[in-house]
Structure formats: C-alpha cells, structure tokens
Fold this protein.
Amino acid sequence: MKKSTSTLALAAAFGAIPAFGQTVDQKLQILQQEIDDLKAQTHKPAAASQQASPYSLDYGSMLDRSSALANGGTNIIGYGEVGYSKFRQSGDATADLQRFVFGFNHRFDERLTLHSEVEFEHAVVSKDDQGEAEIEQAWVNYKMSDAVNFKGGLFLIPLGILNETHEPPTYYGVQRNQVETRIIPTTWRELGVGMHGIVGEGFRYDAGVTTTFDSGKLDDPTTGMRSAHQEGQLANARNLAVYGALNYRRPGLLVGGGVFTGDTGQNGASNPALQGVAARFIMWDVHAQYRVAGLDLQALYAAGTLGDADKVTAATVAANLADPSVAAFAAPKSMKGWYAQAAYHVYKQGNFDVAPFIRYERIDIRQAEDPANNLFQDPNNNERIKTLGVNFWVHPQVVLKADIQRYATDKTQDRFDIGAGFMF
Amino acid sequence: MDSRARRSLALLTLVLGAASGYARGEVYQEPAAFVAEVFGSTPAPKVLWLTREIQAQAAAILGHAPAQLRQRYWSETRKSVWILEETGKEELITAGFVVVEGRIDHVRVLVYRESRGQEVRQGVFLKQFNDAKLAQGNRLDRDIDGIVGATLSVGAVERMARLALYFDRMSHG
C-alpha cells in the first residue's frame, strides 16, 4: 500500500504537473529525499500528533481540498528568562532563572481549542526553596467567528499591556515594569467565563465574569492588591468580579483600556473579621503604544481603590491578636501608577536589532492607617523609578538585555541588570 | 422557574442567537477561490522543485527547514500566485501572495486558526506588503510595522512574503 502511494506520488509529480528550470537529476534527488522521509515516518511510533498542513505541504490536489482546519493538533509553546542583578547600595548580586514557562495548546475541532501555560519560577521548587510551580493559564475557547469567542477556565485579565503580552522579547528591560507589577498584578489571572472578539477594523473587546481577590489573604501592602490575588488556587468565590476591556490595534498603534471590579471580603472566608464586609475593589487602566520610523513609544496609567480598607486594616489587627506570627499592617485603600517609555531602534541588520530605551515610572499606594495600633503608611509605597537600558534581539524571539535602575525612595533597589529571554 | 431565571435564560438565548448569526469560522477565502479571483479562472498548477540550494535559502528565510520538497504555484505571463503556510504563535496561518515582476501585488490571509492576532488579516496591515520586493539577504526592502499582541503572527506573514518573492524568483530559473 505504501509502495503504491509512493508510486502514485511519483506519477503525479512527473505526469500531471509541468515543472520548470530544474534538471532530472535534481528532481530524482528530491524524490529520493521524499522517499527517505516517508520511510522514516513509517518507522516512527504514532506518538505526538503533528499539525496537519492542508495546503503547501501537500502535493496532491490542493485545490480540491476544502479549507479543513488542522483538527486534533497539539502544539507546544514556551518562553523564559534569566537575569543577573547587582545592587548598588549593598553590593549584593543575584543570578536567577526568573521563569521558564511551557504550554500545550490543543485543537479539538475547527472551533474549540485549549490554551495552557505552566510556569516554574526561580528554577527549584521545594518546601525549602523560593521557587514556585503554577498554572498560569488553562482555558478553553469556542470560536463562533472572529467577532464572537467564548472562553472558560483560568485566563489572563485583559488590563494593561504586559498582563496578556509578557513574553520577554516583547518588552523592554530585564525586570518587568513596576507599575504593571505592583499596581496591575501581572501575571493576573482568574477563573471564570468570558467573551472576546474583533469588531470593525481592529477593535478588540473582552468581557466576562471571574473570581476576584480575597482581602483576607492580603499580606503585603507594598504591592497593592497583588498578595490578595487567588490565582485559581481553591479560590474563595463567594464574591465574583466582572471585567471589560476595549483595545484598538492597527500596525504600529495600540490604544486601549479596561476595568475590573468586584467585592473582595469573601464573607470572611480567610479572615473572620471580614464577615459582612464588602471591600469592593475597582481597578482600571488606559494605555497606548505607538511605533513609527524606529521609534517605539509606550505609556500606561492604572488606578484602583479598595472599599472598606479601614475594616481590612482592622481585620489584620484581629488576625495578629489571634496569631502573633501574622503581621498587622495598614491595608491599601487606593493605588495608582503610570509610566512612559521611549525606545529607538538604532541598528537593524538581518535578525539583529538593537534598541536603547528609557522609562520613567511613578507609583503611589495609599494605605488606611491605624495610628492607635501603630500602623502607618510605608514610605516605599510612594516611588519613582528611572530605567535606562538596551534590548538586543539576536533573533526576533531571543533577546539580550541590560539596564540600570534608580529608585527615588527605596535606594536599596538601585541596580544594574543583565538578562536574556526567549519565546517559541 | 422564577422571573429572574427566565430573564437570564432569555438573555443567554439572545446572546447565543446573535453570536450564531455571526458564525463564519476562520476560513476567510478558499485558496481555490483566491487563485480563481486573481486569474479570472484557475490555470493549471506548476511546481517549483526545492533543490538543496533552494531548501537552504528557504530555511534561512523561515528560520527552520521548509516542510515541503515541492511547492505548487500558479502563474500566467508576469503574475504568479503562492499559497503558503507558516506557524504564528501556535497554529498555521494560510496566506495567498500575488507576485508581479518580482514585487508583491497583494496579500490576503485565507485561513487564520488562532484565537488571537487576527489583526494580521486586516487590509491596513497587509497593505504594507504591496509593492515590496526582495532586498539583500532575501529580506524585504521595507520595514513592516507590527501589531502589539500579534508579534509572532506578524513575523509569520513577513516570512511568508519573503518566501513567496524568493520562490517567484527561483521559478523564473
């Protein structure tokens, strides 16, 4: 059967289709290569499913094929980054495999797909190490059309620029910007259902219902609401959130914004003192990116408020009284931040692309102080950060980076960084 | 069923009904229809045999070895059509390239399979390729502005454009 298939392929190649500009020897060489490949394939175990290529890889009746989509295919994607940081004040230095992420994406049929990412941070995960292993995304998408997609599972919230597009070759600097780390808690994901799609020429909308934060889990007010982030881990879901985002994209331009809101008290599931406390959290952002003639400009503003922040502060005091090992602190009541960034591609040759950049960031997190219990604003929550650096892409998907960062308030963070990142 | 539940069900039905009205899948145009549109009818296909040298150049353009050893194309007089496929982030993008005298006449994304990055099929993006030709090192003679969030899909369309121009050049011996 296989021989007859090869024979048919040979006959089709020589008989049905005219060929130009190449010698018979060259054609025979190519056919021999094809036969060798076919032989090799027949000896391969039927293991990993490979993506079908319905058109250009097929030498049969390409035009007779309908537009069958590649069903049943599973793809592997990934990205990662390593960095070295030398701190100016202490002289300390660290080298770290910041993250390695891989994902499996599977197509069930022409409309239904699965998307997943598994992340390992800091190289080693054990109870004695600081590494983490986590599912960053695991969601199913049902595509009715470009305009209408339904999704469900653990997915990224479409706020900011970095949260959804965070592969290292897509952003400047060894460290992710602090506004989209401390104000927008990138990589921010929730369990839920949503709709998204493209309408008109380049407008993308996103809307949905998801899990939300749990104020009872807050333990670090220097990162806004980040530490109350549940990440799909047995998330308390008495309170849910809604989100919406609208972005306009055209070549070289992105303008958009989004909003997320939901109560975070979770009826005291994590801290009984929050029973009956709504603690509504609202966060929104606007952002823009513009690329023209080698210049790459980007800016973002994000702001949020936590309702009942004084009650959340009181709940941390109650938790501290019940268990002195749990620290009390002033909960964040409002947070805002913005950054502006400019880069210029000074050298582009083949795959090589060199772009120095400068970024200025401003962070302002206000806390609900409780003077009676000596809980005050952390001065480091009012911060300005200047970053000067360069990205050197050795391939569009592999980047080397170096930068210098200067913090106006927390001088211990002043540093020199070098790093490398990749995606595939 | 209480009135609130009935309202929710009615809203869900309305949304799904409206959504199904939009349903048209990911195939924007059948490749056969694209070829027929370009030529007014479908000419007999021709084949470019990928010799070792052509394979090596194609690999340099794509960043990986070409999966095919022969590439079908359609041509009449000065015009050729190439239907090519390349992976964006996760899945293959199928695009049609019309080449006239060594320059891209126009490009169309025919099938897009991923759930994000569909902006690459928009005219405002694809127009950037019109009139492009190969420069030194089999690169395009111009920069193509990318789309935020669709970096890999943009790269895939650009690589296919370079490949179509290179294949066109090779098809003329």
